[in-house]
Amino acid sequence: MTTSKTLADFLDASDIEKLYKPVGEAIGLPGRMFGAEFYALEQRDYFPRIWSPVGFASDIPDPGDAKPVELAGWPILLVRGKDKQVRAFLNVCRHRAMRVVTEPCKGRSTFMCPWHAFTYDLEGKLVATPKIGGDRSNRDPSFKMEDVDLKPVRIGQWLDMIFVNIDGKAKPFEEHIQPLNDLLDSFYDLSTLKRAESWSTVYEGNWKVAVETVLDEYHIPFAHPQLIQGVKHNNHENAHHDGLYVMTSNARIYSDTRDSGTAMGYHFNFPRILKENAPEPRSHFVTIMPIGAIQTRPNHALLGLFLPDGSDKTNIVFVHYYPGESATDPAFKQARDENVVSWKEVFAQDTPFAIYVHKNHEIRDAAGIGTRMAPAWEKGVASFYRSMVEVMRQ
Ligand code: FES
Ligand SMILES: [Fe+2]
Predict the structure, then answer these.
(1) Residue 291 CB less than 6 A away from ligand 1
(2) Region class of 282: left (phi > 0), else alpha (psi between -120 and 50), else beta
(3) How far is it, in rounded angstroms, from Cα 196 to Cα 340?
């Protein structure tokens, strides 16, 4: 995470000019912005400045549950307190910087650092320092325990998704997230959704390439034909809200009635989440900047995370949600399992794009090759790049 470089070392004035041309003429980010040197800069000047999703509240359902997560190398400990509130701390012991918690755990009242046993409560307060004063003393008068608490991290929650802002300077979370509610509220009642199955996969590519594999609607007929099977017409929409979301939305029109559609996920009989007056059939695929996603169908949804693991690997986690009892009812188990299999197939179809696009980013600058974007489909790709640059230029 240590670098002496700045954004200008990777993206000069002429690169910025090209990035901001009309989408049909614009040139995407240089390949060097997908490598290890730039990742160090992202760790310092991007991820700490923004609200980023990083985990799921349902991973820590009960008081005393905790889960260590990472946001681009920043170690974060998510904790459910006795008051049922979720809190986040930097998972860095205030003694000599060990990770205090390295595995998910349940029902704890304290966390003891494994190195020298400094012990913190669920609110991050240092409450014990065993043997600090010698073999028979748990106190040392010259070592003040105040100001040695775990460093808290700002937190926000949207649906089941936990967001953090590490530098504490981003706008209030409610203000940040409101446009996402505005986008989806007129279509869906998401309040009935309950967590069901989850799964994970790994892409051997930079996190931005991983996000790009879901960012556009353009590739779907070619890479995922099963997603639009039976669709006569695809009313594609594309929108973004700076720094929060990039949205690809479909009102997919079938050859006869909406229920006859065989495109993935429409045929399940889960209760509906689509509101009565919402146009249908309807789905939204929203990239929640920078590394989150929500995919909706008229009767279920998925939340996803694309967690950077170094500059050339991305850990992907998806959690499925269904209305009310259908999330756990055995009568729906087969349909839920089929849905998981279908979505895993979609992400397997995208795997080669993550691998080979990443490899090509590593060499293409030397050949003078910049990337291009199709205006009808890929305004969101341009928005994704530009929003990131805007944060890092601050
Ligand atoms: S580093 Fe945690 S107790 Fe020493
Ligand atoms: Fe895809």
Answers:
(1) no
(2) beta
(3) 10
**To test ligand 1's pocket by mutation, which of 92, 93, 101 has the most ligand atoms within 8 angstroms of CB?**
93
List helix spans (H) across 186-235: 207-215, 220-223
Q: Which residue has the tokens 């002429």?
A: 14
Give the number of the atom of ligand 1 that is nearest the alpha carbon of residue 116: 3
Is the CB of 95 inside a 6 Å radius of any atom of ligand 1? yes
- Given a contact cutoff of 8 angstroms between Cβ atoms, the answer to whether 166 and 176 are in contact is no
pLDDT per residue over 181-207, tens digit each?
A: 999 998 999 999 999 999 999 999 999
Q: Does domain 171-393 have CATH number 3.90.380.10?
A: yes
CA 385 to chain CA centroid, Å, is 16
Decide whether any atom of ligand 1 lies within 6 Å of the 99 Cβ: no
Of the CATH numbers 2.102.10.10, 2.60.40.10, 3.40.190.10, 2.60.40.1260, which one belongs to the domain with range 59-155?
A: 2.102.10.10
Nearest ligand, measured from the Cα of 351: 2
pTM value > 0.85? yes
CA-to-CA separations, 118 to 2, 97, 111, 178, in angstroms, rounded: 27, 11, 8, 40
